[in-house]
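Work Package 3 (structural annotation) set out to generate three-dimensional models for the target panel prioritized at the project kickoff. During this period the team completed the workflow that converts sequence records into discrete structure tokens, so that structures can be stored uniformly alongside our sequence database. As a representative example, we reproduce one entry of 158 residues exactly as it appears in the project archive.
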Amino acid sequence: MHRVIDHRDPRGAVASVDLLNVQPGQELPGITVSVDRDRLVAYANASGDQNPIHQDEAFAKSVGLPNVIAHGMWTMGAAIEVVTGWTGDPTSIVSYSTRFTSPVEVPADGGAEIVVGGVVKKVDEATGRVTIEVSVTSGGTKVLGRALAIVRTAPAQP
């Protein structure tokens, strides 16, 4: 199941996920995020990362890449939305880490999509923290590996 992410007021410090209803193995609703060359230019301008591999196809190919590629940090940021969409609170993220395994190729015609899912790996009732493994693919290829997010939730109420 995929859903549209509802960005909520980030002032709250605790996610609205009901810890009593969270179990290891539980899947988060998946999302698909589109990226095109215009988005890469906007991200480059916002981040200051003007590396031409993200904007210039001829340059990207000259250094051995198959095409222009998305910024790794853009991919990581887009992927965490599966978690913030689930918790309803982007400030609930305690930690987030990943390894970049393959680039997201962004062709000039049509762009690309990343498909993101998540699975609850651990629930710590004492601390109200939930560990989530995030899976990210583009064109059927895994682009992030060992992607783990830890979120703070409200403590379970009996």
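The mean pLDDT is 88.
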